[in-house]
Amino acid sequence: MSGPTHDPELTALEDALVRLAPASGVNRDALMFRAGQASVRRRAWPIAAVASTLTAAGLAAVLLLRPPTVLERVVLVEPSPAPTAPQQDDSAADYLRLRDRLERESDDAPPPNPAAPALRRTIPLDALLGLPPDAVTDPWITSRKASFQSGDPL
Amino acid sequence: MGPELLGRLIERHAAALVLYARQWCAAPEDVVQDAFVKLVGQAVPPEHVVAWLYRVVRNAALSAARGDRRRRRHETAVAAQAPAWFVAPDTTGLDAREAAAALQSLPPEEREVIVAHLWGGLTFEQIAQVVGGSSSTAHRRYVAGLNALRERLKVPCPDRRTTPN
Asked: Which phi and psi (to 5°) does residue A109 adopt?
């Protein structure tokens, strides 16, 4: 290829240079294969984008146009546990039970009086002793009185 | 872009593009292949395909050259075994190795214009668009590069027959 040099020497040099064929290491077949791959990849993206867009639009339409549904839900209510009875003092109960049994089984025990338990529990010790209420202020007697009434050991 | 047109472009311009990219990077074939693949990926083909290819190859080669600087030692060893710039000469009258050496010794801006115009077939206007600058600047660099090549290659002057008065 001759350039616009208008110099015969340069024109001759141009002609000599342009006859040198550049060495090419480009593999034409490999390049065509890569180009084909690139063209396919380019088409796959728009198709995938359009498909996903259409799917999303369809799902949105279904979601918006479907009739309202009544949501029924089964709720399990667990019954609350029964209130536990207040714990009794077992030692006091055993003591009273043992005393009642001894009273019943002894030979000189009086006949059982149905009102005895209530009487025993309601009559204070001061009254049994014939003393006015709260007449005894001695700490030793007071502690034994409390133990007798509650059934707790000293 | 159809495969036939792409095949023609490869046959006509791939070698010149490799020569063009070889000025900057050590693996010009990869740069040229990437440029052609990029061309296929264009949704709208460029108006001037050849000039577009030269611009893409130039940018990619310069970018690759920046990355290659980190491996300069390796490049030096590879350059000693680098493939020839031109096919072995037969009837050109120029020795290919000498021509390649002379071309290599040129300033990059002159060498670039010479390769793009002589082997790429780009006009000076197209070269100006690829390289940047004006067409007159490209032409001036071209002539300066050719003059330098002529001196280094010692090309004999053509016979000038003068007509007798």
From this structure: -75, 140
User: What's CA B53's distance to the chain center, in Å?
Assistant: 12
* C-alpha to C-alpha distance for B102 and B104, rounded to whole angstroms: 5
Scanning B104-163 for CB atoms below 8 A from A yields: 114, 117-119, 121, 139, 142-143, 146-147, 149-150, 153, 155, 157-158, 160
Which among A17, A81, A135 has a CA at the least distance from the CA of B92?
A: A17
CB contact under 8 A, A5 and B146: yes
Chain B hits for A22, Cβ within 8 Å: 15-16, 18-19, 85-87, 119
Closest alpha carbon to B30 in B8, B63, B71: B63
Q: Do B33 and A31 meet the contact criterion of CB atoms below 8 Å apart?
A: yes
SS3 label, residue A22: strand
Query: Looking at chain B, how many residues does it have?
Result: 165
Chain B contact probe: residue of A11, A17, A27 with most B CBs at under 10 A: A17
Q: For A22, phi and psi rounded to 5 degrees?
A: -65, 140
Q: What φ, ψ does residue A153 adopt, rounded to 5°?
A: -70, 155
For position B34, what pLDDT does the model report? 92
Q: How do residues B44-72 score in pLDDT, each as one tens digit? A: 888 889 999 999 999 999 988 887 766 66
- At A44, phi and psi to the nearest 5? -70, -35
pLDDT along chain B (165 residues), means of 10: 85 91 87 91 86 93 81 62 66 76 90 91 91 91 91 66 42
Q: Answer whether B49 touches A (CB < 8 Å).
A: no
> Which DSSP string corresponds to A111-148?
PP-TTHHHHHHHS-HHHHTT--TT----HHHHHHHHHH
Give the tokens for residue A70. Answer: 């009544």
What ipTM score was computed for the predicted complex, to two decimals? 0.71
The answer to whether the Cα torsion of B112, B55, B97, A21 is positive or negative is negative
How many Å apart are CA A144 and CA A137, to the nearest integer?
12
